[in-house]
Specification:
Chain lengths: 117, 269
């Protein structure tokens, strides 16, 4: 009795899950935007997270076409965060390079100041 | 009834087994997400620069943990664990970026300060050098009341009857160039003189040529032409009587008359 009931409940839940997944149009837009932004700061396929984001977005679009909206949403959500992480990594990398340039310039200046009488 | 009990038990075992398999993957995803979240949630730098991402990491993790309590939610658990981990990573990255930017700002201030200090030091050393050269020039020159600072390049700098400067003159001329570079507003008049041997016309020409060759050398070494005036006076204005050899040698000379530091030259003779 108990088992039968829970099986029915589970089945209903599953059905409800399927039915309640609308097309994640907004999420796909957000993910695309995140990818664009990452690209704008200089992310390329060399950045692993960017590559992941691209692949997932492509698959999400395929899921959209086949109306697997749940998969489409999950992949698009992951793609968005992958892209955001890629963007952040690129920016950090750039700031690190900037920091290095500045450090060597400051070092050079200090050296020059030392030899000044 | 007696038969259905073992069947049910079997089914249950199978279900638990399946779930166990699935939950192993979910669990490791949850563990990773939890570890990532632990790293950022109490880090004040991260909280300061990316508070919203930390909150979302926590929310997603909570969701994943709640879902993990149900059967058949493996993919969702892993999905939210993944999102949570990404939020944590993004937050950590933003914190790193913010720290870097702070250091860049600070270093850039350092750089500006050092640059200023270096420029001042260089300026001071140029001024010092300038004083040194000025002292040397003053030692070579003398102050004449009506003509200002005058430096005499003696006869030894030229071969007899020749207008070309000897190599030994270079050092003196170099000092002159340095002095003029350090005193960019000063101008000079180069005056050539001879002794009274020879015709006045020849002497005039020779004195002018000698003065000109000193002027040319200054120009070659980078002094602007417009700062140089060249005159030949021939055998006029002797400094000694032309009667003795020594006197004549003293009269064969080139004199450099300096303007004051505002570029004002005493009038020509």
């Amino acid at each position: 009795m108990n088992i039968r009931f829970s099986i029915i409940a589970l089945g209903m839940l599953g059905l409800a899950g399927c039915a309640s997944d609308p097309a994640p149009v907004e999420q796909l837009r957000l993910s695309e935007q995140a990818l664009e932004q990452a690209k704008a700061v200089g992310a390329t396929e060399q950045v692993p997270e960017y590559k992941l984001a691209e692949d997932k977005l492509t698959r999400a679009k395929a899921n959209m076409a086949s109306e697997s909206y749940r998969d489409a949403r999950m992949r698009a959500e992951q793609a968005e965060l992958d892209a955001r992480l890629a963007e952040a990594r690129v920016l950090t990398q750039k700031s690190e390079e900037q920091l290095q340039v500045l450090q060597s310039r400051v070092k050079r200046l200090r050296k020059q100041l030392e030899v000044q009488p | 009834m007696k038969r259905s009990k073992p069947m049910a038990a079997l089914a249950l075992v199978a279900l638990v087994g399946l779930q166990g398999c699935a939950s192993q993957r979910s669990e490791s995803a949850l563990d990773d997400a939890t570890a990532a979240y632990q790293k950022v949630k109490d880090n004040s730098d991260v909280l300061r620069s990316a508070p919203r991402d930390v909150i979302r990491a926590g929310e997603s993790l909570g969701r994943a943990e709640r879902l993990a309590g149900y059967i058949g939610t493996g993919p969702d658990v892993r999905h939210y664990a993944y999102l949570s981990q990404r939020y944590s990573e993004i937050a950590a990255e933003h914190a790193k970026l913010a720290l870097n930017q702070e250091r860049v700002t600070k270093l850039d201030l350092d750089r500006q300060r050092l640059q200023l200090a270096l420029r001042e030091a260089k300026l001071a050393s140029v001024q010092q050098q300038g004083k040194f050269i000025e002292a040397q020039i003053s030692a070579l020159a003398s102050q004449q009341s009506d003509r200002g600072l005058v430096m005499t390049l003696g006869d030894v700098l030229f071969d007899t009857g020749q207008a070309d400067l000897k190599n030994t003159a270079s050092r003196t001329v170099l000092k002159l160039v340095q002095f003029l570079q350090l005193n960019p507003r000063r101008v000079v008049r180069i005056e050539g003189y001879t002794d009274s041997t020879g015709t006045p016309e020849d002497n005039l020409r020779l004195s002018r040529e000698r003065a000109q060759s000193v002027g040319d050398m200054l120009v070659d070494l980078g002094v602007k032409e417009e700062r140089i005036e060249v005159v030949g006076y021939g055998d006029q204005y002797p400094v000694e009587a032309n009667a003795s050899e020594r006197g004549r040698a003293q009269n064969r000379r080139v004199e450099i008359v300096f303007s004051d530091d505002k570029g004002k030259l005493s009038p020509a003779r």
